[in-house]
Amino acid sequence: MQHEVSHPSVPTTLAPLRNPAFRSIWTATQISSLGWLVQTVAISWLMATISASDLMVALVQAASTLPVFLLSILAGAIADNFSRRWVMFAGHSLIALASTTLMISVGLGFVHPWLILGLGFLAGCGFALNDPAWHASVGDILHKRDIPAAVTLMSVGYNIVRSVGPALGGVILAFFGPLAAFALAALSDLAPLSAIWRTKWKVRSSPLPREAMTTAIHDGVRFTVMSLEIRAAIARATLFGLASISILALLPLVVRDQLKSGPIAYGILLAGFGAGAFIAGMSNGFLRRIMSQNRLVAFASVACAACCLSLALTSSVPVAAISLALGGAGWLVTWTGIDVSVQLASPRWVVGRTLSIYYALSAGGMAAGSWIWGLLAQNYSLTSALEGAAGALLLVAAAGIVLPIRPWEEKDQESSDFRAPELALDLKPRSGPIVAKVDYSISEKNMDAFLGCMRAKRHALSRAGARNWTLQRNLQTPSLWTETFRTPTWMDFLRLNHRLTAADQETYEHLGALHDGELPPRTVLSIERTTEAARTRASTIFSRPPR
């Protein structure tokens, strides 16, 4: 694994750029993002000119985010089981294919609303494949302490481009037409493909065989559901995406109907959104020092609510640009904070899947929000839709009371160096079920501490794949406690132990310190065999006809 030491003279936010692998892909991603934003401006404005339906205009955002909802969980399992570098390459290839097809279609004069949405969906499939692998790779490329800075830098970089891309897109659209915008987007997609092809980084490989996709998805979902801090972060992200996407989904309608302006004004307003995000990103470290992450995300939702309310009431382009800068700041602070929270709470073996579930549900929230706010604008009014979104964002801010974002903690989430025990039986990977038992001798004075450690151990084992965990106390010898859990197969037992992190091992050390026996607690392994199965096999043998 490549770890770069942060130089004290380099600002924290810029420290990850000292790593050549991160710097190469990050730079290429900004070039690609510039082309994508130019293309987004062209697509949104093209849809607004060829379709009279407000809903179809709003669905431009939904088309590119819906695949993330549908495919990200599968993409996360792929990112955790295959080379993340090649998964990223495949994702960018799909994005390049969509951009090139759109350029050729416009060049041939074949433009239809459903074609635009379909190619947006294809590009969204590329993003669904690339994003979990790229964000999970940050922890492979950089040291854990640089992950918050790297995630912030990725968001800041995108929003620097957002400050330039939409304005550039508006100029290209106004003076050269949509074909030039789509051609620029297609060319920009070559940058990340080239960077990923040329750049390599070391990844700690698992000694175990690759998991089946269904098993990998199941394990990722189980881990996410059982992780309170990840679950709360994803719930907040989904609610925020549902409400805040109204800003971008309805902005073309605000420009066309309320501000009575054209593509240049649309690009300027998007640039304002990006500028606000850039300022917030560069100030993110300072903001985290003066308030908790949970309160910071709540204030970010309030900022986006103020943006929506201002857009609903203004008819001035400068006022709208200032409002969008506030909304962009809230947008970046929220997504950066939640992204880092999910990354730091996830062990390396499952980080691609937890991130993919986060992307899937937040993208699902944005896709649903695009449809909801577009439908409200079409059936009622644009002002009513924006005011409703502002109210929803205030509720999202209040949700921090019951769904708090935990403080960022740099836990050691690397897998432990587990060595398989020597066995007297020759087990196959699918042999099982396996039963593990551990005996402890605990004095009465250590009882509360022991039970606390066992709760932590049960949580760690269950997230890693243990089944039917129990703790039993001996009635004849009350100081004797027996921990028992099962795994379906021998391979599942090996995976479970490889998934336990160094942080989980601290619980084992605490339990060892509480144990009163002369020897440390020892895990006794058994394989379940039933008499019914034996009778069935015996019956089968003895009922065979003689040869």
TrEMBL record:
It is a multi-pass membrane protein. Its main location: membrane. It is found in: Cell membrane. This is MFS transporter. Pfam families: MFS_3. Signal peptide: none annotated. Keywords: Cell membrane, Membrane, Transmembrane, Transmembrane helix, Transport. GO terms for cellular component: plasma membrane. SUPFAM superfamilies: MFS general substrate transporter. The chain crosses the membrane at residues 33-52, 58-79, 86-108, 114-134, 171-197, 233-252, 264-284, 296-313, 319-338, 350-373, 385-405. The keyword Transmembrane helix applies.
